[in-house]
């Protein structure tokens, strides 16, 4: 059941209708979420939460088995949590964006990597997207192991000349820098400085006592036409894409299975291993830019602006598509033009999406259980974000 610590309008609980609450003026979001659920049909199960200026205005869920308190693997939405920690350390003066990684981590400065900066890594320009021999699934779950393997790895392109999505390793690279400087992991700092501060349902390392709330990720169910498109776009295991997604290792599991492995949930690798609810996703971004629970925003406006500023835009040599990245975050205004310049966040492979839009005070979190076609932030996010943004804009008038 939804908690009742915020002003809202009770939503119908009839079968297949969204459950939860919306604030006055946000009823169109409930209707749009219901329309998405009707269009998806089947066993569609999802959560949608939004905040405006630190007030929760949307808190909805729908589908079999799922509740407001359910947790699922959020894949690359984890990167937003990890790099919120990095942003805090830069804000503190503990890390410097233009310092060489090898200054913090001397073993990294080999094989042409000696001049790579923290900024290069955060903007996916380092070229260290994977390991030549790949990694076992249990190795992928451990950021320390990934970092040890990548320290001696030659980059796959001349650093700084191109950018490509460091899908499964960016959090291990930035995490090793964090560990060398602070003596603590990104996971430990996220727990201390972000999650526990606001009691967020977003975990980088899921405690055993919360396992009963976890819903396994269900596989994509593409139509025959969709499967044909996926097959046509398939890349080889030794391509940049294959290496970045660890398909060059013969024992790599399907990407969608990663959060279903207890070792991944337990260790919470900072690139893809987070477990959260939509409340946790949206709440984290609300805490980043707004006063929440009587506490000041985590990020100062200039820090948020610096990390949201586009650093890499255009053709991504790993994804083989147009992408836009800030520092550790995706530049969301490039994906969803309705958002304000400077919106930052990150989506995940199964369909999750989460962000903050400092210009409007909007924080958004969406989570779904079944892996969405074609992978990445689910297509329905566009219509849901438009509905939330329109309601927030109307409420501000």
From TrEMBL:
Going by the entry's taxonomy, the superkingdom of the source organism is recorded as Bacteria
Kindly name one Pfam family recorded for this protein: Beta-lactamase
Residues of the Beta-lactamase-related domain? 45-366
Fetch the PANTHER family from UniProt: BETA-LACTAMASE-RELATED (PTHR43319), BETA-LACTAMASE-RELATED DOMAIN-CONTAINING PROTEIN (PTHR43319:SF3)
Query: How is this protein named in the record?
Result: Beta-lactamase family protein
Annotated organism of origin:
Streptomyces niphimycinicus
């Amino acid at each position: 059941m939804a908690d009742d610590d915020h002003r809202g309008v009770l939503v119908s609980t009839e079968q297949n209708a969204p459950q939860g609450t919306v604030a006055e003026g946000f009823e169109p979001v409930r209707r749009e979420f219901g329309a998405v659920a009707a269009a998806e049909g089947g066993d569609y199960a999802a959560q949608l939460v939004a905040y405006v200026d630190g007030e929760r205005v949307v808190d909805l869920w729908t589908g079999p088995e799922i509740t407001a308190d359910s947790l699922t693997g959020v894949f690359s939405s984890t990167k937003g949590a990890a790099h919120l920690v990095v942003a805090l350390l830069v804000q503190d003066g503990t890390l410097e964006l233009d310092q060489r990684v090898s200054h913090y981590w001397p073993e990294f400065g080999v094989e042409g990597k000696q001049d790579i900066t923290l900024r290069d890594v955060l903007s996916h320009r380092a070229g260290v997207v994977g390991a030549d021999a790949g990694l076992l699934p249990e190795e992928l779950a451990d950021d320390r192991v990934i970092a040890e393997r990548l320290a001696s790895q030659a980059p796959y392109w001349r650093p700084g000349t191109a950018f490509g999505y460091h899908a499964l390793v960016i959090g291990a690279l930035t995490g090793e820098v964090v560990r060398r400087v602070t003596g603590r992991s990104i996971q430990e700092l996220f727990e201390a400085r972000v999650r526990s501060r606001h009691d967020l349902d977003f975990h980088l390392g899921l405690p055993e006592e919360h396992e009963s709330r976890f819903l396994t990720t269900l596989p994509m169910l593409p139509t025959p036409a969709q499967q044909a498109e996926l097959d046509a776009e398939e890349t080889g295991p030794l391509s940049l894409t294959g290496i970045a997604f660890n398909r060059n290792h013969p024992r790599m599991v399907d990407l969608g299975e990663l959060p279903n492995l207890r070792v991944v949930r337990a260790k919470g690798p900072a690139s893809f291993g987070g477990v959260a609810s939509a409340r946790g996703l949206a709440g984290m971004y609300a805490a980043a830019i707004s006063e929440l629970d009587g506490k000041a925003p985590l990020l100062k406006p200039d820090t948020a602006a610096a990390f949201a500023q586009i650093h890499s835009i255009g053709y991504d040599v790993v994804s083989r598509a147009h992408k836009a990245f800030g520092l550790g975050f995706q530049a969301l205004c490039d994906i969803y033009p309705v958002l304000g310049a400077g919106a930052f966040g990150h989506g995940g492979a199964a369909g999750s999406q989460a962000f903050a839009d400092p210009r409007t005070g909007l924080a958004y979190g969406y989570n779904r259980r079944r892996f969405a076609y074609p992978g990445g932030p689910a297509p329905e996010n566009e219509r849901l974000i438009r509905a939330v943004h329109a309601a927030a804009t109307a409420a501000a008038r």
